[in-house]
Design a protein that fits this description.
- This protein has a single domain, classed as 3-Layer(aba) Sandwich (Aminopeptidase).
- The protein has 4 helices and 7 strands.
- Keywords: Transferase.
- GO terms for molecular function: acyltransferase activity, transferring groups other than amino-acyl groups.
Length: 159
């Protein structure tokens, strides 16, 4: 991975560029637009962790983590989870390591907060993201969140 990859907070100076970021047309059914994600982050600032992905000075993607969310709040045995909420890599910028960098960055933040696993969800379908998440080590839990598969990545070497 390049040392020029970095995450930045969304600011008044970059929010317009963030909202213009688009995934490939065949991926639009698998991930919400960045503007929608930013609205969710604004509505839930204690949960959301939105960041832009840059390679040098070029905006190449958006990632949003989530922290301490109960997927089934009515279930007393449901534990709070943290992990990857959203990942949008710009059309024309994929297969360059940006997605892996973004997911690893979210996992690093989850670990920094003292947690031992990251959670994400994905929609099934042709050309969907399942292979990407499985390749990073996420494993389906057998649960669903709406119509999406719930996957978890346990961190190794964590006490």
């Amino acid at each position: 991975m390049s040392s020029s990859f970095r995450l930045e907070k969304i600011t008044p100076d970059n929010v317009e560029a963030a909202c213009r970021l688009k995934v490939r047309p065949d991926q639009e059914g698998f991930v919400a637009p960045v503007a929608w994600s930013l609205a969710e982050a604004y509505a839930q600032p204690g949960i959301a962790w939105p960041r832009l992905i840059f390679d040098g000075e070029q905006l190449v993607g958006f990632v949003m983590g989530f922290f301490s969310v109960r997927f089934h709040p009515d279930d007393p045995d449901d534990r709070p989870r943290s992990g990857l909420w959203r990942l949008n890599i710009a059309a024309g910028q994929q297969s360059r390591g940006y997605g892996r960098f973004a997911v690893e960055s979210v996992c690093e933040e989850v670990r920094r907060r003292g947690l031992t696993r990251a959670t994400t969800t994905w929609a099934l379908g042709e050309r969907g993201p399942e292979g990407f998440y499985l390749g990073l080590g996420f494993r389906p839990t057998g649960e669903k969140s709406g119509d999406q598969v719930v996957g978890e990545l346990a961190f190794t070497g964590v006490q």
